[in-house]
Write the structure tokens for this entry.
Amino acid sequence: MAPPRTLTELFFGSIDRFLRNPVALRAKRGGTWTELSYADLLERVQSLSLGLAELGIRPGDRVGILSENRPEWAIADYACLAARCADVPVYPTLPPRQIEYILRDAGAAALFVSTREQLAKVLDIRGGLPALQHVIAFDEGLSGNGVLDLESVYQRGRAVAARAPAWREGALRAVPDDLATLIYTSGTTGDPKGVMLTHGNITSNVVAGLEVLPLSERDECLSFLPLSHIFERMAGHYCMMQSGTVINYASSIDAVPAEMMERRPTVVLSVPRLFEKIYSRVLENALSGSAIKKNLFFWAKRIGERWVEYELSGRPVPRSLVLRYAVARRLVFSKLHQRVGGRLRFFVSGGAPLSADIARFFFAAGLPILEGYGLTETSPVIAVNKFGRTRLGTVGPPVSGVEVRIAEDGEILTRGPHVMKGYYRKPEATAEVIDAEGWFHTGDIGELDGDGFLKITDRKKDIIVTAGGKNIAPQPIENLAKANKFVANAVMIGDKRRFPSLLIVPNFEKLTAWAEHRNLVFTDNASLIALPEAQEKMEREVLKSLRDLAHFEMPKKVLLLPRDFSIESGELTPKLSVRRRAVEKNYQRQIEALYADGEEGYREAV
């Protein structure tokens, strides 16, 4: 079977192969899991695609999708592809004005919205969207006032289906160079840019990805990363469709632990924060238990990590270690397996660097994490670790068809069918990142080892150069700090300054419990971090996490922040990446005071 060249070929090929399978998608409705078969999915995609055409949507038009992960998101996406128009996914966490900018810049002719809350945002900005002709609501009871309900658009399509026998043939006229989607990068500065990804861009990445990810129709995944982001969309949406893997949509991020137990997925895609939280919770449980329990856990951890050394290096594992590892899995690691449903074969991690220590622990526990790397502009995967070829601390070798080289200044460059067509209506910005030879400049710093494994060291623009000329990569240091259970978030600063410092958001749940246990008096987060005892506690915890740093990398001061970063404050992008410049701007006064003081110390930002 020839691999698909377009996303419509991918969709119809999967429908043909898995049509008899009873479940394609599953989601909770009213507390009960409901299922959608491949046959039902095909019928709804056809009806919606034809319904869009009846509304006047034509090939080449742009259609927005403002929704959380749910079956209707997938149906709308495939319907847009079949109608040969480009969809524009919008993060449901965005405020109205940012949504307005994206839809206006894209010239969206129609927009799908999920809930009453999302519809309210759109009604607030609709006057600033002259190109927007139709708003289509997923939830029932939202029609009227210029809003169509999804069922009515289905009905329009069903009414003409008999007169459109060549619908499938028309959908398959799409070619690899056709625009499939416009994904607006959240960016860390400036207005977002629309990344133009073609059918060929994404499909080539799906084909290459499935050479690495061993997925089949026997698998099930739990989808909770936003489909608005290319990582979940390519790997958790298109790869799952191409392989026949059942997609279970989580009700919310908060529901993930419970629904992992309910659906018992075999594969889960996530960002490192989930693994950090699981690891922190496991470690805390071990440390708070009896001496026997604690000693057993750390014995199992040591045995597991020794086993990983042999396993990943390809050396035969000594028989004595095999036996001890079997005991460790049975007595300790089996509990972690049950916590993630009991059937999980592997995780896939992307979106941010994963700590090698955390990856090693999960491998030791028999829950391997395949870490990869990419960007929206590269559809997204550039490199990924795979079974039989994993090197912890790297993001693996480049996937099939993808070229990677390191520029003289250390920047990672990539070239191949995965590289975007360009930024929408921004030729100058496109020329800044794609050179005359077709190399895309990622903005990340990295290195390729002798075996072709790629290691990311930092963002090019995030490298801190101290006044003394020392170069510091902040991300690895921040990740070390965040591995501590008392730290919720961390940002390193110090560019052009005498020494580096850390901005720390404490894990207030842990810090509050610690303070109450010691009968300390405080009223809120700000008064808590003002307590000398709390500052000393955080100092010990942070320094403990950073004890292996070089002297010049060690932060001389820490600023404790009274709240976590948020999208509303401008400190997080919609995919929850930290906007460093925004954080520094919001705490500029406190940072200046920090550096105006003496050489060392811990302060609170109030």
Remarks:
- The mean pLDDT is 93.
